[in-house]
Design goal:
The chain is of the alpha+beta class and 249 residues long. It has 7 helices and 12 strands. Helix content is 34%, strand content 31%. The chain is globular and about 55 Å long.
């Protein structure tokens, strides 16, 4: 299987939308506007319908939900589609991302001082929302639904220092691939190595569970995170970007 297609499928399973529609090789995802990943059009598979016709149909479908129209495009995307979207007023957002990969088989990772569970509970979610500074009730409700709808194996970790949570992370495992969904560190505790500690702990546990390859997505201009993942051993394998119209979130 094409590596880009593989990691895009893994990513969609690990971060499921509330509703998914399939339209002539395109995967349309809807989730009340919570994250662009879960509310985007993903042109992943061969298609036959004229591009202008497909774009117009997608606009109708997303307008039904009062959502902005967002395309998630990868390095494997049809350049004609990217060009046409640009001509129709779709702009590239500022969160273009790398997808990174690492072979786990020849690496060892320390567990660190990290509490691990195999499910996402309310304690983890409440702290995640606090660290991420979520206050919108619809966003919080949708995030809970997405986490609850994640059906692949999950590992949740948290680091607590002197009774105070300082970092949380969650990883999902499917087909021997482990991917980070979220790594969050209390903004008052950053720069102390907790991000590295929780990543190492999740990778160590995932390897014990049979994972052979790790992957993740990181915004290209997040230099701190990119440097952290390079330090751990990840390598960039492709990029993706969003083109949007009527984006107001």
């Amino acid at each position: 299987m094409n590596k880009i297609l593989l990691f895009e499928e893994l990513s969609m399973n690990g971060h499921p939308a509330l509703q998914t529609q399939f339209y002539d090789g395109w995967v349309l995802r809807f989730a009340n506007g919570y994250t662009k990943r879960a509310n985007s059009i993903n042109p992943l598979y061969p298609s036959a319908i004229n591009l202008e016709t497909k774009i117009a149909e997608c606009e109708k479908r997303y307008s039904t939900y009062d959502l902005p129209i967002i395309y998630k495009l990868t390095d494997a995307a049809d350049p004609n589609l990217d060009k046409l979207l640009s001509e129709q007023g779709y702009t590239i957002t500022d969160d273009s991302s790398y997808v990174m990969e690492m072979d786990l088989q020849s690496r060892d990772f320390s567990m660190g001082d990290c509490e691990l569970t195999n499910h996402i509970d309310n304690v983890w979610l409440d702290s995640y929302f606090e660290f991420a500074e979520y206050t919108d009730k619809v966003k919080i409700m949708t995030a809970r639904q997405i986490f609850e709808n994640t059906k692949v194996a999950a590992i949740c970790g948290r680091i607590v220092k002197s009774g105070v949570p300082v970092a949380f992370g969650v990883a999902v495992i499917e087909r021997g691939f482990v991917g980070f969904l979220d790594i969050v560190v209390n903004k008052m505790q950053r720069g102390k190595g907790y991000g590295l500690e929780i990543c190492q702990s999740l990778l160590s546990s995932s390897k014990d569970l049979g994972a052979h390859t790790a992957y993740l997505q990181v915004v290209q201009n997040n230099n701190i995170a990119v440097n952290l993942y390079n330090k751990i051993g990840y390598k960039t394998i492709y990029s993706y970007w969003y083109r949007v119209k009527n984006f107001c979130y």
